Amino acid sequence: MEQTLEKYLEQIEKYLRPMAVSERIDVIREIKSEMQELQNSGLSAQEILERLGAPKALARAYLGESIVGQRGFRWRRLGALLGFYSLAGAVGLMILPITVIISAGFVVSGVLCLLAGMVKFGGFVLGVEIPWIGVQIGSYTASVFEFLPISIVTGVLLFGAGKLLWDLTLAIVRWLSRSRAKIRA
Asked: pTM of whole model > 0.85?
């Protein structure tokens, strides 16, 4: 394989570092295989590179597919999302941080609300007063029996809002990945 194609693959691999090693190796093999097929069909190295597009855009596409294809929260997925963010361009630079930070804040707040309700009610059952956990609006303070359902409803609503924002983040990643150059045109 020509040196220009090898340099292209090295650039792709550099941009794919947030991916799991096994996934990154598979992507590089796939691109290399496609390059060899295109060379065998008579295309020059320059024509192959034009067909593949910029290495950053192609890596962003693979990274986006990797993020969207995984289910649930994983630290590796968050790292890949941060790597994707660095390749995402102006739209990603403005929107992705907002949706990621707010979604994480809502999820954590929802869990903390649920825990606060359980701790306050558990303290009541055990005969321990926990005055720093509660709901106060003006001069009105919710009782333990009022606080538990309030904390459950608030926690579920915050957690749901965080989940919706996480889904929005993934939709943005899909949208940014969709605009990539496909290998097989």
From this structure: no
